Amino acid sequence: MSVLDSIPHAIADGPRERRHGIRWWLLAAAVGAVLLAGYLIAAGLIALVMATADGAQFDPVVALVAALPGWLALHQTALKITDAPLSVLPLLPTALMMLLIAAASAWVARRSRLRRPDQAWPLITAMGLVHAFVGTAIAVVLDGPVSAVPADAFLSCGLLATISSAAGVANRCGLIYLVWERVEAEVWSGLRLGLLALAALVAAGGVVLLAGICLSAPEMVAALARLGSTAGDAIGGTLLSLLYLPNAVVAGWSFAAGTGLSVGRLEVQPLHVAPGPVPDLPLLAVLPTHDSAAWWAIVLGLPLVVGLVVGTAARRVPGSLARRLLAVGVAAAVAAMGTLLLAYVAGGDLGNGPFGQATLRPVALAAATLCWVAIPAAAVTWLAGPDLDDEPGADQAEAGESAGSTAVDADSADEATSADDTTDDPSDAAASGAAGDTETGAGDTDDPASDNASEAEATGADALDSDDLAPEIPHAREAAESEPPWSKPAEIDPTEFDGDLTGDDRR
Question: What is the pTM of this model?
Fold first, then answer.
């Protein structure tokens, strides 16, 4: 009977059960901390507005109760205030909540030593379902001037938490490698280029917003003065404008792409403006209320720059022209889908009054983004050709040339050595021959077992070297042997997803 058979099952399974218990306790603590942090953020913002508003009385109980619909607003849940819809919600607190959820998920994965995709799904599912049920419970409890639809709360809170949690554990638990392993090399390069395009178009929207703020500074000051004569009113208006800055950045890209935006009857495009009333908010003073100027067409050059940046980056994709064009197409599709989502979330309803609905025209903006990214990028990729410094065979050619030069040097060295040997004294040659015969005779008298042992050691060393060089991810060896060396870009090291535990894991 082996030693393991004598160990009771309760003792043998104890550490594993304890480890699973610690993981679930860590997950519960992280989810509770994220929920509490979101509630405190909403309560703090409402308390700041109440404390600084002119003529308002600060009541902690009212602030804590009002933080419940504020928590739903952080998760982009549409609200109704006295039967007036409000779905144009600020994106800055939402981005902060997503960062908190991603950081908490990454902390749980690190402390629980989660390394594989199958270990990440319970964490992601738990984070999403808890937020979904909490949002639904808050929507059911709300009964007053502010209300929300429970189904909308379930979907918005659950989706936001799920996406954020997946982003937090994607690198550590191998979700990125899971995608990389199942797509072609040019598709993976296109996904990376799509993220680059999204970053570039957000930067372009920020440039448009910054230019609008600089040109509309007097109108913004006048709008801030109309809110009230006290410093508290100015603080409230400034805070509200800061919270809506990401929405304004997306609107800036919509303006630069040519599709424009509309707030009620006001429609703004680079070549056309239809006047209309807007809410008296300092940030909305950036919107023009008169006919467009001819020089506004300059902003149409920003999407062209975005396409040129993507095309320049696409030249580094290895392979043929068709592969690079496919990567450009994937990048344009990713940028269009990301823009569609951002434009849909940034817009919404502004009540039943004259302002009506604020929309960034998501479908038209996505189509324009697809064209602005795909056409210039494809033109650059087609006309400029590949980046010669990143050709897949460049390194192999250099290695072959260096190996050839080394072989030539070795041959010349051998020829020189043989020439020197032939010019030596014949007596030295005879002596060396006699010594060689003596050594050969001595070697023939050695034990055959020593030769077998040396051969076994050499074989074991070769096997050890091959195992050390083998990838640690399952099935990675077959994929590496079946595909050409250039089929997958060396952008991901598979060993970082399933290797030995790092210093963070041992803590």
Answer: 0.72
